[in-house]
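Please decode residue identities from the backbone states below.
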């Protein structure tokens, strides 16, 4: 191979190397952009996860409070005597109790009581 052919072969290799370097630099720039976008997305997702954890902690605290309230309610001792106003209401209810007649008819006296059947009486069915 002559010197001119060797120089031409070297020029071709240099040109290919330059093209490869340009392509690699473009690919490197694209990968850097993708990495930057991925880091921003990661930060967004971390923020979302953090807020979800915070909300989850709040829900857990509220549930713990509700369970404590129910536990406190279960641990209450029953009251053996009712307050006086409850007794008064029950006494009043007993004094004014009403029971419906056991028959299917209701007799109402409209006039003097002379025990005559049908006289001055109204039968309601």
């Amino acid at each position: 191979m002559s010197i001119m052919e060797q120089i031409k072969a070297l020029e071709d290799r240099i040109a290919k190397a330059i093209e490869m370097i340009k392509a690699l630099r473009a690919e490197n720039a694209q990968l850097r952009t993708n990495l930057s976008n991925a880091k921003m997305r990661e930060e967004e997702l971390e923020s979302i996860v953090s807020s979800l954890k915070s909300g989850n902690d709040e829900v857990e605290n509220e549930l713990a409070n509700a369970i404590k309230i129910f536990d406190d309610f279960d641990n209450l001792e029953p009251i053996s005597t009712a307050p006086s106003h409850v007794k008064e209401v029950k006494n009043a209810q007993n004094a004014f109790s009403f029971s419906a007649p056991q028959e299917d008819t209701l007799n109402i006296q409209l006039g003097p009581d002379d025990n005559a059947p049908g006289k001055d009486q109204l039968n309601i069915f």
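Observation: Residues 3-124 form one domain.
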